[in-house]
């Protein structure tokens, strides 16, 4: 990959608060709603967009915002996640006061104690954060897709003198029932926190929308350190930011909402702020397929706010054969390097690195993770195919719900997840 040049601030510009901050990324969760996609990897390690993994988005936002000190807490099946960060995020230079620490749950506090919750993941590493000698800590979820300048949120935090600043999405009230919702006054101060309320409160300026938590929090480190130590002594606590710490601050301290629209990075092609929790098969499929649109809702071609990752050196994508009925072509699709579309048709699909599609096969609205091999004459529609899957010749997916349900995982919205163990069971039963 190209190593980013980490430059200082321009002469005469005010000092960036990000230089006094660290990003603490919570990346330990399985993401069970992604079903078999997270059987072998944590949700933040799941591939996205043809080139990236989900963890690359919060890390890139931090880097692009000017933050040079980061820590990533891992727990569930973290090998592929750790390997990805070692390969793709190894350009920090300690001699320039830049760090990225990987913090697996390692029983540092007690031999039987793993990370008990999001707050506990920070509590167990208080001494490590102290070593950073930072003034502010930004707590980030490692499993969302978005572009955001955290410097803007930091400045609001300092200007308001808040104990905590909570990143919030503006969503229609009827959709807010699935989120933690912030009830704010006219100044943006949070006066109540409601977890998945049946009747979400509107905002002061618009009763039809609500403010939903993004799982992004800014604290002064001195304040957070003391809060975490108090929480660790509370045997009734779940040791979770959303369930315990944030509601406690709302009740007895100073909590302010930061609206994502104020810090979302957009190029002018996007029509509205983009944030996605790609936590289900349906949302994961949709967010990837959305990238194939002529003007996608998320602009990944923005060189001014790049999403950094581990970039493999691969040969170009190749399209082979040009005969009627056997023409290698991809229409309204994203095709990564080292893919070979051989005598097959690909429509509105996203193919990750190393995918092969063989003659007479057809793919329509398919997300194929790295190194998928699609056999001759196979037809795939509305599908997510896990990495290193071999699709047998002539297999049809996405056309017959009963047949899909027999062998694969089909969502209520008709999206079919295909993994190699599913295909192996199918092959064994057909022998």
Automatic annotation (TrEMBL):
Pathway field: Glycan biosynthesis; glycogen biosynthesis
Gene3D superfamilies documented for this protein: Hexapeptide repeat proteins, Spore Coat Polysaccharide Biosynthesis Protein SpsA, Chain A
InterPro entries: ADP-Glc_PPase, ADP_Glu_pyroP_CS, GlgC_bac, GlmU/GlgC-like_hexapep, NTP_transferase_dom, Nucleotide-diphossugar_trans, Trimer_LpxA-like_sf
Top class in the EC scheme: transferase
Domain annotation Glucose-1-phosphate adenylyltransferase/Bifunctional protein GlmU-like C-terminal hexapeptide: ranges: 315-418
Residues involved in alpha-D-glucose 1-phosphate binding: 115, 180, 195-196, 213
Domain of life: Bacteria
Gene Ontology molecular function: any one: ATP binding
Catalytic activity: alpha-D-glucose 1-phosphate + ATP + H(+) = ADP-alpha-D-glucose + diphosphate
Site (Could play a key role in the communication between the regulatory and the substrate sites): 75, 114
A family per Pfam: Hexapep_GlmU
Family (UniProt): Belongs to the bacterial/plant glucose-1-phosphate adenylyltransferase family.
Subunit record text: Homotetramer.
Protein name: Glucose-1-phosphate adenylyltransferase
Organism encoding this protein: Aeromicrobium choanae
Gene: glgC
